[in-house]
Every structure is written in structure tokens, then in C-alpha cells.
Amino acid sequence: MNKEQALAIVKLHLTDHRFSHTLGVVETSVDLANRYGADPEKAELAAIFHDYAKFRDKEEMKKIVQEKLVDKSFLDYGDELLHAPCGAYFVKDEVGIDDQEILDAIYYHTTGRPNMTLLEKVIFLADYIEPGRRFNGVNEVRELAKVSLDNAIIQALENTIGFLMKRRHRVYPGTLATYNQLINTKKEK
Ligand SMILES: Nc1ncnc2c1ncn2[C@@H]1O[C@H](COP(=O)(O)OP(=O)(O)O)[C@@H](O)[C@H]1O
């Protein structure tokens, strides 16, 4: 499947706004992959499909988690999280992508996980800093992304966790674990 074919598939599942966001994530993730030594072709494909399930029916996705996925914890921290793990499931099942590195990058793109692969880090960060993003603190993360993938992700996690806590939203424990692991890695150096 080439880039145009992949984009044509994903376009059918997204709004225009979400498709523009996806194009931003594609551009940014290829840049980050080239800068930090991840596979740019895998980054491109993972980025194209990262939000594949963004607009899928929530009840359908809850059923997928319950019946098909090993980790059920996504069910307890808000429906917005479902599109990432379920996206990985649908992309394999419906699009036929079976590269586990790409599927994992889609699976963990919203929450992160401890000890993320390079590709997972690239997609996680690209989703946060792509040029269409406008939220507070994003420019600081963009600057950090030029020099340190891990420091940029730590800052993105701090912003997201802080944002959620200020609004008394739930914070997915795996995201806190991701933050702790990256901080520990820094301390060990
Ligand atoms: N780690 C998390 N724990 C709990 N909720 C989260 C977490 N990360 C994101 N969310 C919630 O999910 C929503 C969608 O996240 P995300 O998919 O990253 O954003 P976007 O829709 O802007 O791409 C966020 O606005 C937030 O409410």
C-alpha cells in the first residue's frame, strides 16, 4: 500500500479537520523519525492510521476492548482513550496492516507506555506537536523536540497530566507510569 492509497482509506473515516491533523502528524513524524533514527516509512504509515478509529461508535469500541483486547483498563478512564487501542485492532482487522511495531505505535499514541519504542515515541510526540496544534505550551515542546525526544515527551506528559488534573479529569495510570519511567531514565544517566 502506498501513501496515497493509505490516505484515501483513512480519509473516509475522518472529518476534514481530523484529516488535516493526520497530515500534520504524518509530516512531523517523518521529520522526527529522520532526526532520531526511527524508520520513516513505518512512521508515515503509523501516522496515517493513528486516528483511524477516532469517530467509531463508542459502544462498538467498548465491546472490542471487552472481547478482543488483553488490557481492559482503557474502559475506566474515559471514552476518548478507546480510539487508540481500538484503532490498532481495526487497522489490523480491516486494513490488513500486521506490522506489530506500527500497530503498537497506534495503540499507545494517546496514553504512551513505559519503555516506548522509538517509533511509539515519534508518533506520540508528533500527535502532540504537529503544526495544526494550538494549545498552551506546545511551542515549548516543539523546541524541545529539536534536541531531545525524551525531554519533549516529558514536557508533553506534564502538560497533559496537568491539564487533566486541573479539570478534575481522570488520568490514565499508564500515562503516569510513562512519565515516571522517563524521569527515572534521566536520573540514571
Ligand atoms: N492519559 C490520559 N488519561 C486520561 N484521559 C486522557 C489522557 N490523554 C488524553 N486524554 C483525554 O482524551 C482526549 C483526547 O486525547 P487525544 O486523542 O490525545 O487528543 P486529540 O483528540 O486532540 O487528538 C483528551 O482531550 C483528554 O480529555
UniProtKB/TrEMBL annotation:
Reaction(s) catalysed by this chain's protein? P(1),P(4)-bis(5'-adenosyl) tetraphosphate + H2O = 2 ADP + 2 H(+)
Q: Does the keyword Iron apply?
A: yes
Which key words are in the record?
Hydrolase, Iron, Metal-binding, Nucleotide-binding
Q: Can the keyword Nucleus be found in this entry's annotation?
A: no
Query: Which GO-annotated molecular functions does the record name?
Result: bis(5'-nucleosyl)-tetraphosphatase (symmetrical) activity; metal ion binding; nucleotide binding
List the Pfam families.
HD
Name by which UniProt lists this protein: bis(5'-nucleosyl)-tetraphosphatase (symmetrical)
Upper lineage: Bacteria, Bacillati, Bacillota, Bacilli, Bacillales
